[in-house]
């Protein structure tokens, strides 16, 4: 399943990974297969074949137009893509289908892009990449190769569905958690967006991100933050905004301090904003509860549990 990736990294900056990744990914394939994974692979095989007439990555992710397939094929495409719901990260346009996802992930991209080092010709890792939306935008900025790591098998299947219509050899999603990745010290830029608060040990997590960067490489970190000084960190109770797996929500100053403590330099907070109800919402491609259901109806500045509502910061740092 990952042969194209192994081929691509031979004779590249990532060739060191060829010694350890095949065994890890073989073990994943044998042991960790989700009950529905085989079904999703069958669904992928039934997606209609098409030659997209346009491949847009720069301002949006759009492959092909409605004219590239007939109406029957488009209906089949929509029905099969619905098998991969919930579609959280996007939006995508696929052969005229408007895949309107829960998140306007493009807004996050627009907020951070002006602040980061140019991505042209860079070797990039996106830790917790979801279905790969931002990876396509990285490729659109001229990256040499983009590798994503995300343990969700559904998001891998979503990525495969999109990749079918733009089978670029320069973008790969590995179904592994950051803690499973061998230390590479090879990437020019490491992104990790929306993952830190899911980690029980955030300083170890930051050190693991650092282990993937070459010296002088750039970390782009995005996470939920609270207001407060260097010593303020929220450790919520069982749930935060109805999510069970949220451990640490630092203030920006605390996060800057943590990054210094693990050895990063040039640490800068480049953006901070409250997540709006237009950026994260229910759509026909994600019918579960969304942000509006996670906030206190009487006071949307608070979560339903009474914590500060999600605000997110982007922080850049150098190894
Ligand atoms: C909130 S989503 C963020 C997706 C995307 N990066 C974004 O900003 O839109 C968090 C992602 O982290 C992934 N994740 C959870 N634990 C992880 C781990 N240990 N290593 C890498 N990714 C992880 C989840 O599967 C999920 O796709």
UniProtKB/TrEMBL annotation:
Q: What is its EC number?
A: 2.5.1.-
InterPro entries cross-referenced by the UniProt entry: CmoB (IPR010017), Mo5U34_MeTrfas-like (IPR027555), SAM-dependent_MTases_sf (IPR029063)
What are the UniProt keywords, alphabetically? Transferase, tRNA processing
What Pfam families would the database entry show? Methyltransf_9 (PF08003)
Chain sites annotated for binding carboxy-S-adenosyl-L-methionine: 89, 103, 108, 128, 150-152, 178-179, 193, 197, 312
Q: Name one GO biological process term.
A: tRNA wobble uridine modification
Enumerate the catalysed reactions: carboxy-S-adenosyl-L-methionine + 5-hydroxyuridine(34) in tRNA = 5-carboxymethoxyuridine(34) in tRNA + S-adenosyl-L-homocysteine + H(+)
Q: Which residues form a coiled coil?
A: none
- Superkingdom of origin: Bacteria
Which of the seven top EC classes does this enzyme belong to? transferase
Give GO MF terms, alphabetically. transferase activity, transferring alkyl or aryl (other than methyl) groups
Role: Catalyzes carboxymethyl transfer from carboxy-S-adenosyl-L-methionine (Cx-SAM) to 5-hydroxyuridine (ho5U) to form 5-carboxymethoxyuridine (cmo5U) at position 34 in tRNAs.
How it assembles, according to the record, is: Homotetramer.
Q: Which family does it belong to?
A: Belongs to the class I-like SAM-binding methyltransferase superfamily. CmoB family.
Q: What's the protein here called?
A: tRNA U34 carboxymethyltransferase
Q: Which organism is it from?
A: Saccharobesus litoralis
The lineage is: Bacteria, Pseudomonadati, Pseudomonadota, Gammaproteobacteria, Alteromonadales
């Amino acid at each position: 399943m990952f042969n194209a990736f192994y081929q691509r990294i031979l004779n590249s900056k990532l060739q060191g990974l060829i010694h350890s990744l095949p065994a890890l990914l073989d073990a994943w394939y044998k042991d960790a297969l989700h009950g529905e994974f085989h079904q999703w692979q069958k669904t992928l095989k039934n997606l209609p074949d098409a030659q997209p007439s346009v491949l847009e990555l720069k301002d949006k992710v759009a492959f092909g137009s409605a004219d590239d397939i007939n109406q029957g094929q488009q209906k089949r495409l929509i029905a099969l893509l619905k098998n991969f719901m919930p579609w959280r990260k996007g939006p995508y346009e696929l052969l005229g289908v408007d895949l309107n996802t829960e998140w306007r992930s493009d807004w996050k991209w627009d907020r951070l892009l002006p602040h980061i080092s140019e991505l042209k010709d860079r070797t990039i890792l996106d830790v917790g990449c979801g279905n790969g939306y931002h990876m396509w935008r990285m490729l659109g900025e001229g990256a040499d190769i983009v590798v994503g790591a995300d343990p969700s098998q559904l998001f891998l299947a979503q990525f495969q569905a999109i990749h079918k219509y733009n089978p670029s050899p320069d973008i790969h999603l590995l179904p592994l958690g950051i803690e499973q990745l061998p230390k590479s010290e090879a990437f020019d830029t490491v992104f990790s967006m929306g993952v830190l608060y899911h980690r029980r040990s955030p300083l170890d997590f930051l050190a693991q991100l650092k282990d993937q960067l070459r010296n002088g490489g750039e970390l782009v970190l995005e996470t939920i933050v609270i207001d407060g000084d260097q010593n303020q960190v929220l450790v919520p109770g069982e749930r935060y905004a109805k999510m069970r797996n949220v451990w640490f929500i630092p203030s920006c100053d605390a996060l800057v301090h943590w990054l210094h403590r693990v050895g990063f330099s040039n640490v800068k907070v480049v953006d901070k904003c409250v997540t709006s109800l237009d950026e994260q919402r229910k759509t026909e491609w994600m019918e579960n509860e969304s942000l509006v259901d996670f906030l206190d109806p009487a006071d949307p500045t608070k979560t339903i549990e009474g914590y500060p509502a999600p605000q997110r910061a982007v922080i850049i740092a150098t190894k």
